[in-house]
Every structure is written in structure tokens, then in C-alpha cells.
Amino acid sequence: MAVLEVNNIFKSFGKYEVLKGISFSLEEGEVLAMIGSSGSGKTTLLRCLNFLERPDKGTIAVNEKLLFDGESAEKMTEEQIRQNRLHFGLVFQNFNLFPQYSVIENISLAPKLLQIGTEEEIEQKALALIERVGLSDKKDYYPWQLSGGQQQRVAIARALALGPDVLCFDEPTSALDPELTGEVLKVIKDLKTENRTMVVVTHEMEFARNVADKIIFMANGVIEEMGPPEQIFEHPQSEKTKAFLSKSLEEI
């Protein structure tokens, strides 16, 4: 059974059509890497999945439950949108931690606001997640006291705190120095061993090749090519895919 089913998603901003009929599905525990040049629509697609943008057309379903249908989207209430977002966890490029809160407070905030468990249960889960991302000794630190890699690991723990069905990453290493990139990618690799279903927008080609089960190459708002890593990297069919990979792999 597919955990995530995306069908025929369109999204425009004014006259500019960003997404032009995107469809794919993910099984439980699968990792999807989305690659492509800037402006190809990857981040907009991720924002549509997380209900930060509303698609113009198409459907989104999680565990066979229809969360979005473009035909009736105008009738969705803010409460329905908030509930739909709980199916997804999103890790941003620039961490987006609350500077006034400590590590444990950043991770605990959403569960407390949504009253998911007792105070003690929320704190214990937060401590377990902090340990999970290797920051037990930093639980009372504030974001400004952490490196970029440490902040991104806190952001991953925060995204996991509500137990999402699908964990999404938007270029999780793009704001990091090369030496900090590895520690964040290691956490994501480890999550794969826990059967996490993930969507990762990334420019890290080796990570996509080694960790993803499925690759989507996007160009000009469409899925130009989709398949397992060995097909995309070793036997790409599209000329656009070949050109993109040739350029990207030269830069590694």
C-alpha cells in the first residue's frame, strides 16, 4: 500500500506555471530524492505536499486517505489544512529554529501546543529524539550556541516530534559548510534504517545515488525522468537528465 500518492499536481503563480502535472507514489520506508536545477519546481512541490502552498489541480493522499482534491480545495477550512500538515514533517534549508527557545523547547513546542501527551511524555520523547540525533549534551543550548550542522539536526528532531507519515527535506545541507554536511546526511541515512518514508530535495548527488530508492529529475515544472538510482545515474534516458548529471557530477 502506498503511503503517499500524488496525482496530477498543477501550481501557478500568476501567469507562471511552476508545476505542470506531477504524479508519483511512495511505499512505506521508501526514500525519494528530487534533483534538478534551481527553478525546476522541486521546492514548490515540497511546499504543496506540506500544505504551505495550495495546488491549483490534482490530488494528494496519505495511507489511502484523500487529503487534497483540487476540485474541492476551496472548501477546505484552516483546521483541515492544519490537520493535513500533521501527516508531514518538513526540514527547511535554513533550520528555522525559534531563537528564543532551547533545543528541548524547540522540539517540545508543537506537541505541547497540540496537547499530544502529558508534559512528562512530551519531555521524554523530546529527550529521546535529541539523543537520536546525537545532541544529548546540547539539550539546554540555544540555537545561536550551535553549529549549522547541529541546528539542522535539531530541526530534524523537531520534524519527527509529531510522528509524521512522511518526512520531507528541502535542501537540508545547502546552508552548511562542507565539513558539516556529512553529519546531517548521516542522520538522514540512519532514519532510512528505521523504515522512514522520506522525500529529499537535494543537490548532493552521491547521497541521492547511495540512499534513495527512487529518483525524480525535475525540469521546467515536469518530471523529466523517474526511476531507481542505478537507472537515473547509469542509464539516463532524457537528454536533459544527461546534461544535468554531467554538469553536477563534474562539480563533485
What does this molecule look like?
The model has no long low-confidence stretch (mean pLDDT 93). The strands form 2 sheets. The protein has a 6-stranded mixed beta sheet with strand order 6-7-8-3-9-10, sandwiched between helices. Helix 4 packs across helix 5. With 252 residues, the chain is an alpha/beta fold. The protein is globular, with a radius of gyration of 18 Å. The chain starts with a strand and ends with a helix.
Q: What is the H/E string?
A: EEEHEEHEHHHEHEHEEHH
- Give the proportion of residues in helices: 25-40%
Estimated share of beta-strand residues = 25-35%
Overall outline: globular
Report the span from N to C terminus. Answer: 37 Å
How many strand units? 10
Radius of gyration: 18 Å
Task: List the total number of helices.
Answer: 9
Sheet with most strands = 6 strands, mixed
Spans of at least 5 consecutive residues with low confidence: none
> What value does the average pLDDT take?
93
Strand order, main sheet: write it out.
6-7-8-3-9-10
Helix/strand/pairing category? alpha/beta
Please describe the topology of this protein.
Blueprint: E1 2-13, E2 16-27, E3 31-35, H1 42-49, E4 57-62, E5 65-69, H2 78-85, E6 88-91, H3 103-113, H4 119-132, H5 148-160, E7 166-170, H6 178-192, E8 198-201, H7 205-211, E9 214-219, E10 222-227, H8 229-234, H9 239-250
Parallel strand pairs: 3-8, 3-9, 6-7, 7-8
Antiparallel strand pairs: 1-2, 1-4, 4-5, 9-10
Helix pairs in contact: 3-4, 3-5, 4-5, 5-6
Search tags:
alpha/beta; 6-stranded mixed β-sheet; 252 residues; 4-stranded antiparallel β-sheet; 37% helix; 9 helices
